[in-house]
User: What shape does this take?
Amino acid sequence: MARAAKTGDNEQAFEDAVRPLKQAFVWTAFFSAFVNLLMLVSPIFMMVVFDRVLSSQRVETLILLTVIAVVAFVAYGFLEWVRGRILARAGAWLEDTLAKPTLMAALAARLRGTPGTGQGVRDLQQVRNFVSAPTLFPFFDAPWTPIFIAVLWLLHPWIGIFATTMAVILFIIGLIGELTTRKHQAKTLERVMIAQRQVDAAIEQSEAVTALGMRQPLAERWDHARHEASEMQRGLNERSAMVTGTAKGLRQMVQVGILALGAYLVLQAQLTPGGMIAASILLGRALAPIDQSITAWRGFMTARLAWRRLKPLLIDGPSEAQKLPLPAPKGRINVTQLAYRPPGAASVDAFLLHGVNFSLDPGDALGIVGPSGAGKSTLCRMIAGLYVPTMGTVRLDGASLDQWDPDTLGAHIGYLPQDVGLPPATVAETIARLSKAEPETVVEAATKAGAHELILALPAGYETPIGAGGVPLSGGQRQRIGLARALFGDPAVVILDEAAAHLDQEGELALQRAIQGLKERNATVLLIAHRPSLVRHMDKLLVLQQGRMTKFGGRDEVLAEITPKAVQLRTGT
Assistant: This one.
């Protein structure tokens, strides 16, 4: 029920966000009406000049008509600029409005395990480019085609019949193009995205790929996916080219046909020479939106598919509703009947965690142990607010995590994941969590993590760029800078997932001192670790096996049950 309510709120917020875009389209259609009316100036001018001015030989009439036409075309150019500016600003506004929610929704979708969530940002750019481009104008001009055809009927019924027939034929060609390429284009784009994800993953894992001799097999797999996408793209291009070529060829024949028909009617004294010229111009204008729409249709389809992917991403994303600010937590954690099943799991029984219950008071240090795949990291992610429980609750100082604003909650939690991802930023910006912080607080966090001397040894110290495109760091360096980031701001809860995985002896001693410092300032610590040197700093232990909590209690009590070496751990030997 809560999820349905959130989806409803997000859908309403999405509709509110795009409403100004609809208003921009209304204004564009309004100005398009005047633009198309002014397009009647040229055929009327031609008809009057040929039928009246040349026969009367009145120069002053020609001058007056020319002035009127020039003024009308100046107004036409101004209105074209206005509607172009409206769409350009609408596209920019759309991107500015949805860019941040799209990124937030992509981050949330990635946590749910949805692949290719970075496509959402590219989809938004695709939609913005289409909305801002002049290729959208034919779709606003097309409704005026019947009006121009009606004027052609007034010139002569045969001309009206010819124009109507050609418009219907062009429309049918465009419809055939839509029906024959719609599904094919969707499949092609899907294949292109699959191939792109494969190459992105390969580049991210370049070290393992190269070291394990996987380059050639991986390149072959990617080349196969790329070739499939390329073949589908080629087929789509050929179909689009056939439709576009047919439409363009027909348009040229139409222009010849209308002049031939007009000349015949002039010879039969059923139409004036001016009417013949006007009919040619009017028919060209009447069919131009249909012809241009066929050419722009592929871009429209691409933008439409992008919009259809973007909308559910935003609607299913996190709600931006403001939440009542809660007092800074002290670190009391209560986990009740906690269970988690990944979204899209093949079986309803495919729980990674099930029936986990425990409580921690401020200052407690909990060690989480168990074999690989037991659910330790999943539990940490749920306590950090990254995963939404399938059942049960996680409460921080009595409030369930969904009552907290995610950014506010993040400020009170220090989290060090197994894979320490560092953003493209300086060391200082990374430790400060990309916020504007006083230098003293950054250095303090680094000192608590035992990383101050390590950072000073980098090429530019705290101003050294790291992450993508920055100075490469070893696994231990990344982990210690990640620990400093976790300790920044004196969080009430610190969650360390395999924090010693890449640390040498010096780094592990720094981690032990950091844990001791956290306990001294009454912070709650959760640590996934198997090293006795770290476990002996814990107050309590929780044992997970196959997603279930098998033991929980005091460190010595649990150790006595699970290992004969408990005495060694208690004495520190």
Observations:
- Residues 1-5, 565-573 have pLDDT under 50 and may be disordered.
- Residues 202 and 218 are 7 Å apart (CA to CA).
- The chain has two domains: 2-315, 333-343+350-571.
